[in-house]
């Protein structure tokens, strides 16, 4: 809630003093109740006092009772609306997530809802089943239903212009969550992980694992990234390729499929089945004769899972080094089993906490904490951003990072 003015404080002080005085006079009021009852006939005009003294006594008592009753009614009228106002001050936060089909979005949504409710907010959490029109409708409903702030993890960052416009017209702040909302001046802040660093870490891991600075190669590699409508892909793939491109140019890394452009390696909706289909085709055309595939750059775990399924079905060479991101449980199981080399962990608990702090600051009329004011331009200008740091997880540290921290139990990744 916004800070109250000194005038408001003075009024509340006077009100509380008045209520205190009323409480002190409750016993006085009780003493007069019997008098009122006894002399009700006088009030009705059925009995006339015998003397002038009696008349004056009754008149005085009637005035005192009336005054106390009026004061009590005033106190009631003041106190009850105050309680109502307190309930009305509980802000409603709309949260929209892309889908429940990927584990990470379930965790993001659950963590966000728990953190916001613990901070005293009401939460309207929606999942859009990876359907843009559904997400548009959900956002329009949240605007119409009076949400005080929106947190939006988009399916397609460029397709929510109309509901975002409606939010801006109503003065509703918008926090872009994890995926940057593009081409809209309604976006107030952005909260995400350092997604360029995610790609860098994946590329650096492959350089170290293949010892590219000391080995001549060539090593065969294939490339997979995510949905072309997700602006984060530009950072994931861009960060990795900024590390790997020189080795491709030098011939130490060879992409036998020839598919190196973003449009060629993108995977619609980050879908595991689509990644598997593409990998099946690549294996059939380039590695079915026993040629070794040395590495696969996968921008996240769902694409990595599709690649791993394809390898299990039809690949006969030495098993490649595979990267990933998100530490989804099937992939952590594969990591432990030696079927995936690494995954970049983005602790959604940390991101949820950062967003809740942002929400709290905005609702109080304060500037939220940001740590990047240069990198994330959504087409209408640079969006002030808070970045959380990603961490590389391998067989060497998965217990410390994932289990000891309470993110998973050991049973979940057996």
Give an account of the 3D structure.
The protein is an alpha/beta fold and 414 residues long. The chain has 15 helices and 12 strands. The strands form 3 sheets. Strands 2-1-3-4-5-11 form a 6-stranded parallel sheet, sandwiched between helices. Helix 2 (26-38) packs across helix 4 and helix 11 (272-286) packs across helix 12. The longest helix has 37 residues, at 52-88. The protein starts with 5 loop residues before the first helix and ends in an 11-residue tail after the last helix.
Task: Record keyword descriptors for this entry.
414 residues, four-stranded parallel beta sheet, 15 helices, 12 strands, disordered N terminus
Which radius of gyration do the C-alpha atoms yield?
A: 33 Å
Number of strands: 12
**What sort of overall outline do the alpha carbons produce when their principal axes are compared?**
elongated
Average of the residue pLDDT scores: 84
| Unreliable segments of 5+ consecutive residues | 1-56, 64-87
> What's the order of the H and E elements?
HHHHEHEHEHEEHEHEHHEHEHEHEEH
Count of helical regions: 15
Q: Strand count, sense and closure of the main sheet?
A: 6 strands, parallel
Strand content: 5-15%
Helix content: 40-55%
Note the gap between the termini: 46 Å
Question: How does the helix and strand content classify structurally?
Answer: alpha/beta
Largest beta sheet: strand ordering: 2-1-3-4-5-11
Structure described in brief:
The protein is α/β, with parallel strands linked by helices and 414 residues long. 50% of the residues lie in helices and 12% in strands.
């Amino acid at each position: 809630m916004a800070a109250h003015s000194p005038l408001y404080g003075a009024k509340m002080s006077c009100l509380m003093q008045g209520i205190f005085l009323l409480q002190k006079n409750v016993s006085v009021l009780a003493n007069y109740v019997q008098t009122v009852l006894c002399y009700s006939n006088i009030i009705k005009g059925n009995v006339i006092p015998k003397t002038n003294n009696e008349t004056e006594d009754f008149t005085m008592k009637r005035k005192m009772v009336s005054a106390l009753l009026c004061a009590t009614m005033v106190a009631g009228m003041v106190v009850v609306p105050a309680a109502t106002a307190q309930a009305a001050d509980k802000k409603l936060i709309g949260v929209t997530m892309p889908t429940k089909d990927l584990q990470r979005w379930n965790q993001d949504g659950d963590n966000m809802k728990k953190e916001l409710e613990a901070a005293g907010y009401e939460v309207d959490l929606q999942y859009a089943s990876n359907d843009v029109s559904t997400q548009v409708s959900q956002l329009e409903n949240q605007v119409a239903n009076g949400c005080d702030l929106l947190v939006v993890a988009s399916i397609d960052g460029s397709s929510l212009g109309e509901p975002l416009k409606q939010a801006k017209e109503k003065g509703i702040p918008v926090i872009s969550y994890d995926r940057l909302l593009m081409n809209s001046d309604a976006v107030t802040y952005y909260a995400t992980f350092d997604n360029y660093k995610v790609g860098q870490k994946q590329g650096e891991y492959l350089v170290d694992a293949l010892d590219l600075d000391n080995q001549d190669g060539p090593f065969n590699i294939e490339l997979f990234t995510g949905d072309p409508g997700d602006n984060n892909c530009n950072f994931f793939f861009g960060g990795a390729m900024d590390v790997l491109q020189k080795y491709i140019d030098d011939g130490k890394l060879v992409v036998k499929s020839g598919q190196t452009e973003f449009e060629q390696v993108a995977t619609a909706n980050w879908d595991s089945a689509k990644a598997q289909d593409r990998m099946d085709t690549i294996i059939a055309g380039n590695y079915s004769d026993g040629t070794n595939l040395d590495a696969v750059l996968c921008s996240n775990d769902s694409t990595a899972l599709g690649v791993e399924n394809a390898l299990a079905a039809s690949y006969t060479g030495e098993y490649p080094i595979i990267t990933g991101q998100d530490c989804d449980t099937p992939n952590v199981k594969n990591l432990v089993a030696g079927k995936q080399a690494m995954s970049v962990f983005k602790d959604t608990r940390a991101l949820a906490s950062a967003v809740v702090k942002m929400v709290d600051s905005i609702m109080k009329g304060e500037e939220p904490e940001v740590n990047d004011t240069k990198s994330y331009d959504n087409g209408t200008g640079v969006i002030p951003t808070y970045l959380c740091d990603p961490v590389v997880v391998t067989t060497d540290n998965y217990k410390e990072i994932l289990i000891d921290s309470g993110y998973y139990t050991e049973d979940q990744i057996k």
